[in-house]
Write a structure and sequence with these properties.
heterodimer; A: 473 residues; alpha/beta; five-stranded parallel sheet; 16 helices; 32% helix; globular; disordered C terminus; B: 213 residues; Aconitase, domain 4; seven-stranded mixed sheet; two-stranded antiparallel ribbon; 8 helices; 30% helix
């Protein structure tokens, strides 16, 4: 048998039906849904008199529009309430398990899947959300789908899919202190461009990826979509198995050992061919800060805002000019001279325990700068929130002047009350700096949690490597 | 779904690379329960000034592009969020086809679920179409899906590539669910032989609902 990539192995294992020259029908092991992109799918299903085929493989959660403050208060946003009610009704009628906003296990859909062990190596996972790529950190084939496809999966537990091309992203060497998983993925996107991975499924490898914790690998896979590839994956290893063990939905005892033996086979064979390969050297990656209006508009913290004339391509020149105008930035400005109004540490990219621990470590005993209007910490799930509180991280944050909130998507997308006001500038650990993403006319700079924490303390971007090296892992 | 076979219509240019789906349908409109009415809010933040007054500087508000049904775009159109609200908006606004050098994967896929043709031409061809659209008021194109051509009234004819299965979906107005359902027995068979992959330990310490329930 010819050597296969991890993607090809999972693909072949999920083929339900295939005929030459046509997209295949693949089986979906886990279908995650949330309030934002599912109501139309359930409505479509009902209109056709169809039923949810596998409610037992479908999990729902409220995350996009939930409040991160007091949830016992009435929901004032009637549109959001309508969606919560619709999700609750649809799940009840179809027998789908729902983590509602008051469940102790509630959280961002891509956080709770792995946290509860719903996500397991070798699976196919879909969700009506582009950051479904997160789950690929466990060696799954996981990607975002549209609402019509959500309806299709609800009805058939299958998806019509064409085989993707494969992209191998290898990060060699050792990550320097102060450089995190977020910086690695931003550097990758900066290198390949935001459309660089289009048509591909990415597999990450190399020493620097292997050295990452599961939280870090999830950050990398999460932002794979920002480089254009729908799915990113890391082959499971001992780090993965250690993370899995004991999680609620993971088999236990002998069944776990058997599962691990199966999971160990999930890796690209020696000599497997990828359609494209990209290599980076971890030692050359500095902490990253985006300066523009897409995640590919990124540079090192010790660098400067680019000049549109730096680009040869006319389209790039125009895009840079328009981005700088939107961001209110002048070419040549040192990144560390950019002041910040608000800080957001959260989102499915960077709201896990590793992220919160690193940020707390950095701010312990310090205080948010007076010029900062708001500094938010939004844990990715209530489970993470509870564990962080057990470790006293909430106290460290609140004593340093941060607000400690309840779990949800929050200011990453601003569908609840956590919105970045017009023309204000954020240091944000989220995944998208598109125009208006965090609020109309708001200005987002994407950074790692330690970079965001340091910006909160300093009031402007700082190079964490110089900021307080002793406190930066 | 409405089939797409041939279409002739006015072209509107969107001269910007990497147009993301957040721009097409901003987050405040993601709280809907239906697929209708997204045309009015398509490109909301670019298209309207405060008070929903049309922004005269936004290209789709130019009188010459009123009634356009073909959108000419740049590289990586539709990147970002998977929200199908974006193609719902595109369609409801009145666009039947999009032309660009490349589209983002999820958006591209979503177009076919809604009877929209995303046609891919080379950068040079798209450049030429931008020039012609700019130069001639009322510039329109004819798209012939069976022959995979895009042509104008001045003898320009470009050929575009599309996967045969994708083409068939648009030509016949097929929907995925209907197609998937045809393979019900294959799905049954798969489930019988692959139960292990889907095995799930049923935890006792997970709480789905709040105490109030």
């Amino acid at each position: 048998m010819p050597p296969k990539t991890l993607y090809e192995k999972i693909w072949d294992d999920h083929l339900v039906y295939e005929e030459p020259g046509k997209p295949a029908l693949i089986y979906i092991d886990r279908h995650l849904i949330h309030e934002g992109t599912s109501p139309q799918a359930f409505a479509g299903l009902k209109a056709e008199g169809r039923k949810v085929r596998r409610p037992d493989l479908t999990f729902a959660v409220m995350d996009h529009s939930v409040s991160t403050t007091d949830r016992t208060l009435p929901i004032l946003d009637q549109d959001a309430k309508q969606q919560f009610d619709a999700l609750e009704r649809n799940c009840r009628e179809s027998g789908v398990r729902l983590f509602d906003m008051n469940s102790k296990n509630q959280g961002i859909v891509h956080i709770i899947g792995p946290e509860l062990g719903i996500t397991q190596p070798g699976q196919t996972i879909v969700c009506g959300d582009s950051h479904t790529s997160t789950h690929g950190a466990f060696g799954t084939l996981a990607f975002g789908i549209g609402t019509s496809e959500v309806e299709n999966v609800l009805a058939t537990q299958c998806l019509v899919q064409a085989r993707s091309k494969t992209l191998h992203i290898v990060v060699n060497g050792k990550r320097p202190r102060g450089v995190t998983a977020k910086d690695i993925i931003l550097a990758i996107i900066g290198k390949i461009g935001i459309g660089g991975g289009t048509g591909h499924v990415a597999e990450y490898g190399g020493e620097a990826i292997r050295a990452l914790s599961m939280d870090g690998r999830m950050t990398v896979c999460n932002m794979t979509i920002e480089g254009g590839a729908r799915a990113g994956m890391v082959a499971p290893d001992e780090t993965t198995f250690a993370y899995m063990e004991g999680r609620p939905f993971v088999p236990r005892g002998k069944a776990f050992q058997e599962a691990v033996e199966r999971w160990k086979l999930l890796k690209s064979d020696d000599g497997a061919k990828f359609d494209m390969t990209v290599e980076l050297q971890a030692e050359q990656i500095a902490p990253q800060v985006t300066w523009g209006t897409n995640p590919g508009m990124v540079t090192s913290v010790n660098s400067r805002v680019p000049d549109p004339h730096d680009y040869r391509d006319l389209n790039d020149q125009k895009a840079t000019e328009s981005a700088l105008k939107y961001m209110g930035l002048k070419p040549g400005t040192p990144i560390v001279d950019i002041p910040v109004d608000r800080v957001f540490i959260g989102s499915c990219t960077n709201s896990r325990l590793d992220d919160l621990r690193a940020a707390a470590h950095l701010v312990a005993g310090k205080h948010v700068a007076r010029s900062i209007k708001q500094a938010l910490i939004v844990p990715g799930s209530r489970g993470i929130k509870a564990q962080a509180e057990k470790e006293g991280l909430d106290k460290i944050f609140t004593q340093a002047g941060f607000e400690w909130r309840d779990a949800g998507c929050s200011m990453c997308i601003g569908m609840n009350a956590d919105v970045l006001p017009p023309h204000e500038r954020s240091a944000s650990t989220s995944n998208r700096n598109f125009e208006g993403r965090q609020g109309k006319d708001s200005r987002t700079h994407l950074v790692s949690p330690v970079m965001a924490a340091a910006a909160a303390i300093a009031g402007h971007f700082v190079d964490v490597r110089e900021f307080d090296v002793a406190h930066v892992e | 779904m409405q089939p797409f076979v041939k279409h002739t219509g006015l072209v509107a240019p969107m001269d910007r690379v990497n147009v993301d789906t957040d721009q097409m349908v901003p987050k405040q409109f993601l709280k809907a329960l239906t697929r209708e009415g997204f045309g009015r809010i398509l490109f909301y933040d670019w298209r309207y000034l405060p008070g929903e007054k049309p922004n005269p500087d936004f290209v789709l508000n130019f009188p010459r592009y009123k009634g356009a049904s073909i959108l000419l775009a740049r590289t990586n159109f539709g990147c970002g969020s998977s929200r199908e609200h974006a193609p719902w908006g595109v369609k409801d606004y009145g666009f039947r086809a999009l032309i660009a050098p490349s589209f983002a994967d999820i958006f591209y896929n979503n177009c076919f679920k809604n009877g929209i043709l995303p046609a891919i031409l080379t950068e040079a061809e798209v450049d030429e179409l931008f020039k012609r659209t700019e130069k001639e008021e009322g510039y329109s194109l004819s798209i012939d899906l069976p022959n995979q051509t895009i042509s104008d009234n001045h003898g320009l004819v470009y050929k575009f590539e599309i996967a045969p299965a994708r083409k068939e979906v648009l030509l016949k107005g097929l929907d995925d669910i209907g197609q998937s359902m045809q393979h019900a027995s294959a799905i049954d068979a798969y489930e019988k032989t692959h139960a292990a992959t889907a095995t799930m330990y049923e935890p006792v310490d997970v709480k789905y609902y709040s105490n109030s329930r």
